[in-house]
Design goal:
With 401 residues, this protein is an alpha+beta fold. The protein folds into two domains: 305 residues, Lipovitellin-phosvitin complex, beta-sheet shell regions (Roll); 66 residues. The chain contains 14 helices and 13 strands. Strands 1, 2, 3, 4, 5, 6, 7, 8, 9, 10, 11, 12 and 13 form a 13-stranded antiparallel beta sheet that branches. α2 packs antiparallel against α6. The longest helix is centred in the first third of the chain and has 19 residues. The two termini are 43 Å apart.
Length: 401
Amino acid sequence: MPRLRMLLVFGMLVSFVFATAFAQEKKDEPKKTDTKVEEKKVEPKPDDKKVDPKPEDKKVEPKPEEKKAEPKAEDKKVEPKPEEKKAEPKAEEKKAEPAGLAWKFTANVPFFQKMTTVTEQNIKVMGLDVTQKQNQTFYFEWTPIKQDGDKWEIKQKILGIQMTIDIAGNPVSFDSTQENPPGGANTALAEFFKALKDSSFTLVYNTKTQKVESISGKDDFLKKLSTANQQLEPLLKKILNDDALKQMADPTFGFLPPSAEAQAKGWETTSTLNLGPIGTYTNKYKFTYKGADATNKDLDLINFDTTITYAAPADSDPALPFKIKSANLTTKEKQEPGKIIFNRKLGRLQSSDAKLILAGKLTIEIGGNSTDVDLNQVQTINVVTDDKSLLPAAPEVKKGP
């Protein structure tokens, strides 16, 4: 399960860009007209002695002129306030801000997901070509528990697992949705995946930053897995660290833009996942908002490009039958972008699709002998969300004659 979710790290989120303009020059213009009026008031004073301008002053009294051309009245008419209301950037920005791309939760109202990953590996080792195919499907239930300010407490539960692995023509399968799953009830694979079923975690999601801040439930999860296979307990504790578990929720929550500006220009996320003796994955995602769907304005489309770089571990683990000494693995360039559909009306991920091609070389040590391995891997991931459980319906029990 960790391997399935770690390679799906999506990574989100909200700010405003304000632009305000004021016409200060228009406020300064009345001062120039005031000086002209004052000059008219001073001009009649020298004429008063010769022609007794007192009665004429009443007629030509500058007061009515001030009333007609009173700059204060004109300023009120040309005052930039109405212009600000017409072109106020705040209103425009609110229409385009990514508030519609925010998650919406209702306490105790769950939603459900189905995540399917198909992986095809072509491995060349010691002159032999080995082909491996995996088909993994996980069924999840997400239940918002309670809200505390900007933070929501959400419970994630694994409702079911379906898996088929074919290594060089030798298939192994498990299906928890069936009463008697293929693979046998007592096989190591069946016991391991039976332990995964009904496991749950509690995460804290910040609706302001649109990030998963923490996740709990690791100890109970490790206890269940260790019961199924005690030899793997030391290795599982190293792989299933806090960061690994937190990133397991990113494919569901970690992809929204961090701001209105990011939504317009595009945004990127980077995460590094250290899986101890398995190695380190660096995941980089570049998102591009494509706008609303042409046929359904409630759906927003987001494309993303994924770059994954793998680095060999610094230390080995005795629980592993091999040691990865060196590696040069990365995703190939110019891959088809992944696609996300977000339902702004419901406030949740509706679906996502991605295809990743990973290739390179590894040097593995087995029994003290080093072996070079060429790896080519193609992985497709599909996630869908619904109000109802996506578990397949149980087969009808045939009644006897």
